[in-house]
Design a protein that fits this description.
By secondary structure, the protein is mostly beta strands. It has strands at 3-7, 10-12, 18-25, 37-43, 50-55, 62-64, 72-77, 82-87, 96-103, 118-119, 123-127.
Length: 129
Amino acid sequence: QLQVVESGGGLVQPGGSRRLSCVASGITPGATLDYYGIGWFRQAPGKEREGVACFGKAGGGTYYADSVKGRFTISRDNTINTEYLEMNSLKPEDTAVYYCALARYRSNWCLVSRMYEYWGQGTQVTVSS
């Protein structure tokens, strides 16, 4: 069964950096993470969950929320079925629980949460001095 587990959250000072990791398991034998839709979402207290970053269709590039463009970078290592979210120049408004999500297909609408079937438990990122 497909599963994803996030890690890397914590307390960060404003202007600091943090890298989140998401390890996927249950990948179809012979396949790689490239076959799957992968995205990062976040939810702050009292707010709806929002898409932060994701990979679109093969060759379709990556997508980012306007609020994180130029500061966050999504990447993955298919050899270890791991996706990363590198967060730089963090702001207090980036404080949220961050979730990794996995879908059985890839789409350029990958910032939409209903695309995903599999979700991690979330990891808290707090940006505060």
